[in-house]
Amino acid sequence: MDTIASLFSFITTPVSWVIVQFHSVYGKIFGPDTGWAWGLSIVSLVILIRICLIPLFVKQIKATRAMQTLQPEMKKIQERYKNDKQRQSEEMMKLYKETGTNPLSSCLPILAQSPFFFALYHVLNGIATGSTIGVINESLLASARKAHIFGAPLAAKFTDSSAKVESLGASLTDVRVVTAIMIVLMSASQFYTQRQLMTKNVDTTVKTPFMQQQKMLMYVFPVMFAVFGINFPVGVLVYWLTTNVWTMGQQMYVIHNNPTPGSKAQAAYLERLTKHVTHHGKVRRRSEKTIVKAIVAKGRDRNEFERKFINGLTKAGLAAQTDGTVVKSDAAVATQTEDGTPTTGTAAPKRQQPKRQTKAQRQSGTAKPGESGPTTSLSKSEEPQDAKPEDAKPAAAAKKAGPQTGSGTRSKAQSGQRKGPQRPKSPSKK
């Protein structure tokens, strides 16, 4: 670790200068020799670095989502050229070039943060050995060696011997308890951050090897932090725990406000957005307009959650526009429906179908109140299509018999027969 840290000695002076400037501010509040002054200086260094890395973090999010989108195409290339590794690599590079993606973009924040991490380790190691480094002179070195965080010196490690810990003015038990707690918190925050990404912000409609890889890293990274953490000074553990907490909070914000399409986080976000838009009747924030605009532009390619969002607006009498705004659908403004075709806010009335009569009603020529008259008054187009020619024979026979009461006619027609309408005999049997 010392050899790797020495490679980044060129940035040691800027890092030590930033720590000294923060220490001069916190020293006036908590005292120059306290652990609060030096500990908060390290925390402030982390916050400053992470603020500077926000553009890279945004680029990392875009690169990660682009890689998730490309996973089906990458899988096809791997299956097609599984026996030709060179051609497989060429096709992969061609795919990256056409889509403008870079697999290393997702690692940019970690790579950009590494020099500051090793430079801080180099500074704290110099404090542990009692040597000045960067802009930390003799007086600042003595003040830093006196600083303790919950009884553990800034430069102490979990693996230090009892004699070395005593030379820093602390006990071995205090150092190991504090470092163990910080290592556990550091690993737990890393695990929760990765788990939150896998369970909430991953497109569940696409099952690719990339998801299995991310799931494996969810368990590998916390173990790596736990193994390497026992060799980190307390000050470095403060640095790494702070940056993990920052990453977790930053990711929670992104998942809550700009989730991955097709993920559970998007379903929850669109549900909240539907309630908000239907209550206020419009989209207020610029980020919300951007998301609505993207959903409208997809047309038929919308996923299940996006279609549910559009249908929810339609039921509330609203319609999403191509510019991301939402208007009332009864204003007769051209909008886009679920399938992407334009329509207006008014809907055409449905055509009323005539109610079908029973067979007994058609034979007797009676109708229920509120319905149309006897079947003889129905037009040819309104007759049921499934009526058979045999059904008309009993009615014709009743007309020839002359006017009779309905009960008498029915009793004569049914004498010697079972109750209910009977099928007429075929002409060949008469």
Rg calc: 39 Å
Shape: elongated
DSSP strand tally: 6
Into which percentage range does the β-strand content fall? under 5%
Q: Report the total helices.
A: 17
Distance between the termini: 111 Å
The average pLDDT value, as a whole number, equals 75
The biggest beta sheet reads:
2 strands, antiparallel
Indicate the multimeric state: single chain
Portion in helices: 55-70%
State the low-pLDDT regions, or none.
331-349, 367-416
> What structural class do the secondary elements suggest?
mainly alpha
Could you give the order of strands across the largest sheet?
Answer: 1-2
Helix and strand sequence: HHHHHHHEEHHHHHHHEEEEHHH
What secondary-structure arrangement, pairings included, does this model have?
Elements (H helix, E strand, L loop, with lengths): L1 H6 L4 H19 L4 H18 L1 H27 L4 H15 L8 H22 L8 H9 L1 E2 L2 E2 L8 H6 L4 H29 L8 H21 L4 H24 L6 H17 L5 H13 L5 H12 L2 E3 L5 E3 L6 E2 L5 E2 L15 H6 L27 H9 L5 H8 L17
Antiparallel strand pairs: 1-2, 3-4, 5-6
Helix pairs in contact: 2-3, 3-11, 4-5, 6-11, 9-10, 9-11, 12-14
